[in-house]
Amino acid sequence: MANTVNQTSTGAGVGLAIARIVGLICIAGFLADLLGLVLPMGSGALWRFGVLQQTGDRSIVLLFGIALLTYGCWDTPMRRKPLSYLGLGLGVAYLLTCVLVISDGLKVQTQTVDQIKQRAEQMQTQVEQSRSNPQIQAKATPKDFDNALKSIEAQAFTMTENAKNGTVKRSITIASNFLIMGIGFLSLGRLGLSRSVARSGGSRFKASTPRG
Predict the structure, then answer these.
(1) Is residue 122 part of a domain?
(2) Out of 21-30, 77-86, 137-146, 147-156, which region has the weakest mean confidence (pLDDT)?
(3) Peptide bond just before 210 cis, omega within 30 deg
């Protein structure tokens, strides 16, 4: 019986150690990926929007790593409590990032639409300039020029709508990832702190109980 208990205790200890190792590896891997995403440093809403998208896609690795590390330190309150606060901090940060994602998404949408309009205007200007070119006039009719202008306008409208819809979908996807991860981090942090509070409350209860 004693050997069985010792083996069970040893197996549990090994399992916790493995959880801590895998958790640290997941966190280190996420930080390495994040470093690769932000370097070299860029600027502007488009660069930040892309970084946030990649970060959101990889955040499950960070959540998994902190969860394993918290589990591996579950019986060590001095380690579990800081991890719980880290989870709460990350949860708040991820929820606030949703606002940044929406803001950058609107900026990226505006920039993309403006670029499409500028290209369309440039092409329309080239068509108008071609009207006064004798060589081109000899090969094209006024109707051809009108059709070219209408085609450019139609293509610009289609590209604008596609850009708007694509940016909205990307913004929703990225914001949803950060929202879900934020809730996960908050839940993990509260779970660790609730265990700490429960244990400290139990200890105070035992200390205040009079001995018979």
Answers:
(1) yes
(2) 137-146
(3) no
Give the pLDDT confidence of 45-104 residue by residue, as tens digits.
Answer: 889 999 999 999 999 999 999 999 998 888 888 888 889 999 999 999 999 999 999 999
Q: Where does residue 107 rank: exposed (0-12), middle (13-18), buried (19+ CB within 10 A)?
A: middle
- Which residue is associated with the tokens 């895998």? 22
- Is there a domain that residue 203 lies in? no
pTM of this prediction?
0.78
Best CA proximity match to 191, nearest among 104, 67, 13: 67
* Length of the chain measured in residues: 212
Number of domains comprising the chain: 1
In contact, 68 and 20? CB cutoff 8 Å = yes
End-to-end CA distance of the chain: 33
Question: Which residue range(s) make up the domain with 82?
Answer: 2-198
Residue 207 lies in a domain: no
